[in-house]
Structures are given as structure tokens and as C-alpha cells.
Amino acid sequence: MRHIARRLAMAALLSAAALPALAQSRPWPTQPIRVIVPFAAGTSDTVARLVTGEMSKALGQPFVIENRPGAGGNIGSEACARATPDGYTICLGTISSHAINPAIYPRLPYDVARDFAPITQLAAQPNALAVANNVAATTVGEFVALLRARPPRDIPFATSGVGTSVHLAGTLFGQMTGTELEHVPYRGSAQIITALLSGELPVAFDNLSSVLPFAREGKLRILGVTSLTRSAAAPEIPTVAETVPGFESLSWHGLFAPARVSPEIVARLQREAAAALATPAVATRFAELGITPVGSTPDAFRAFVAAETTRWGEVARRAQIRLD
Questions:
Q1: What is the rounded distance in angstroms from the CA atom of residue 11 to the CA atom of residue 5?
Q2: For residues 248 and 228, is the Cβ–Cβ distance under 8 A?
Q3: Is the Cα dihedral 133, 139, 144, 148 positive or negative?
Q4: Spatial separation of the C-alpha atoms in residues 13 and 30, rounded to whole Å
Q5: Residue from 195, 184, 137 nearest 159 by CA
Q6: pLDDT (tens digit per residue) in 43-90
């Protein structure tokens, strides 16, 4: 009897030890995948929906977009970081939520390097230096001369909020040109456009896709794009770097999972995201918006985020940008 009891106990132990392996061997995914977008409807939401819409076809499960805006992307990003690491919750991260916020929020509720598993950088998009039609500058060089000749309060610049990529773009512009611009935050691109068209404010840094349609209608002027090379969406517009060598400020989007997600799941998500970026539907829409697809590996994306965090942290600290 003791021999039989010992065998039964050993079998029970072996069965228990096998449970994790069995769980890991289950096919993934078998249920919908939640995608937290830590911003309201806009470019980030558009990128997430375009890419995950194609990914769902390959994976056979719907991707459910959950917009959780607030605190510059911190609320939604924290929800992703705290989610169960089973591959059924991922999030869209941006230059703001995953590179700038660590420098400007002293009590950030997550650690980018510790709490996330980078999947892939999806896209990059230049910002634009735009001015109202009544501004006496038609080039970046003329604009710099205008800034140097006038007090900062005479030429305030608008952005979609404190600590956003476009805020830091304007800050970097001032640092690299030795000029000073007074920052006026708005709640989004729609308000920025209204302010420019009405003459309420003379200057704005905003995503290229937001201001380009109005520039083509002659309602405002874009003096330069903030990528190192001219945008394929508007090759006629010079880069800021053609006047201010080395100036670059790109908005970017990427996918993240909570830390401790299986590397196999991360690899599968990366493959399907890269494939989605290459589909005609996504490629065509990105081109229309002036967005460049990327599709980097998880390791390359991790290194990119670390470099961006260091770079923009230095810009923010030099300007003493802090938020509670």
C-alpha cells in the first residue's frame, strides 16, 4: 500500500509540474486582444486602428481599441503596465508616454524600462513649424531673424499641450537657435489650427498631417518639417535642418506589452505588425498622412526608446519642464 501511495503522490507531483508547460502550449490567441490607446481620438488612435485591423486578419481574433486618455498618456500606459502579462492586453506607446514623460513627471506611475516589453516601432512622423499668413517670415532663416529681433512674448507658439512632442520640438528649436519662444498650450490640433487661422497666435509646432491640408489651401504657411530629410508627403517643403543643422523632432508610435509577456508572443505580435505595415491599405493611408512605417524588432525598438528617453530628457531638464 505504501508503494502504491508513493507512486500516486509522484504522479500527482509530475502532473502539477506539467501544468505550466501545458498552459504555455495552448494556442495563442484564443480570445480578443485589448489595445489600450492612452490618448483620445487622433493620429495615435488612427495608427492603432489601421495596424491592428490588419493584424486581426492574420491572428484570427479581433483587436479591441480602448481609448484611455489623461495625464499625457500616463493613465492608459499605467493600465497596460499593470495588466496580466498573457498577451491579451497591449498598448500603443508614443514619444510622449514612453520617452518624454519619464523626464517631466516626478511621480510617473510606471517605469518604461522595467514595466514594458517593447514589441515594435510602428511609425514615425515629422512635426512642422507652421505660421499664420500675417507673420513676416517665409523661411526658417527669416523666422529665426524675426525671433532675435523681437521679445519672446511678441511671438508665442502653440502646441497641443505641455510635455508633448511638439512642445519639446519648439523647445529644442529655441535651444538650437539661441532664441526664446513663449509656449502656449492648447488641447489639440483643432484648437491650434483655429488659433493660427484667426491670427490669435502666430506660430505653432504640430504634426505635419494636421497642418498640411490647410497649408495646401493657402490658409497658413509651413516653414519647415522637423525630419532630417524632406517628407515624401510634401517634398516641396524644406526641412528645419536645412537651416538649423542637425535639428530633428519626430513623433513616433509603437506597440508595447506588459513586462514578463512570453517572448514567443512578443515575436508573433512583431511579425504580424510588420506584415500589417506592408499591406496596401496601411501603406497607402500612412503615405497620405505623411507617416513613415517602421516595423523594427523588439530589441531594436528597446534601444530606440532608451535613446529617445535620454535625448528628450536632456531637452526637458535644460528647459526645466516639470509636471505634477
A1: 10
A2: yes
A3: negative
A4: 28
A5: 184
A6: 899 999 999 999 999 999 999 999 999 998 999 999 999 999 999 999
Per-residue pLDDT of 264-296, as tens digits, reads: 999 999 999 999 999 999 999 999 888 999 999
Q: What is the DSSP letter of 206?
A: E
61 in any annotated domain? yes
Q: Examine residue 100 and state whether it is found in any structural domain, yes or no.
A: yes
- The alpha carbon of residue 6 and the mean position of all alpha carbons in its chain are separated, in whole angstroms, by 58
Are 232 and 259 part of one and the same domain? no
- C-alpha distances (whole Å) from 176 to each of 14, 144, 161, 241, 292 are 65, 11, 21, 11, 25
DSSP state of 290: T
How far apart CA 184 and CA 226 sit, in angstroms, is: 19
Identify the domain containing residue 157 by its residue range. 126-242
Query: Which of residues 212, 242, 272 is at a domain's end?
Result: 242
Q: Is 201 in contact with 115 (CB distance < 8 Å)?
A: no
CATH of the domain at 225: 3.40.190.10
What sections of the chain are H helices per DSSP? Answer: 2-25, 43-59, 74-82, 95, 101-104, 112-115, 140-149, 165-177, 189-198, 208-216, 263-277, 280-289, 298-319
The C-alpha cell 514615425 sits at: 124
The cell numbers describing 20, all together, are 505550466
Instruction: State phi, psi for 262 to the nearest 5 degrees.
Output: -55, 130
User: Number of helices (H) and strands (E), helices first, in the chain?
Assistant: 13, 10
Answer for the pair 91, 69: CB distance below 8 angstroms, yes or no: no
For helices 165-177 and 298-319, the axis angle rounded to 10 degrees is: 60
Q: Are residues 157 and 235 in the same domain?
A: yes
The whole-model pTM stands at: 0.86
- Give CA separation, 50 vs 75, 95, 207, in Å: 23, 19, 18
> Measured between alpha carbons, how far is 112 from 91 in angstroms, rounded to an integer?
13
Q: Is the peptide bond before 29 cis (omega within 30 degrees of 0)?
A: yes
Q: Helix, strand or coil for residue 119?
A: strand
Give the three-state DSSP class for 125. strand
For residue 4, being part of any structural domain is answered with no
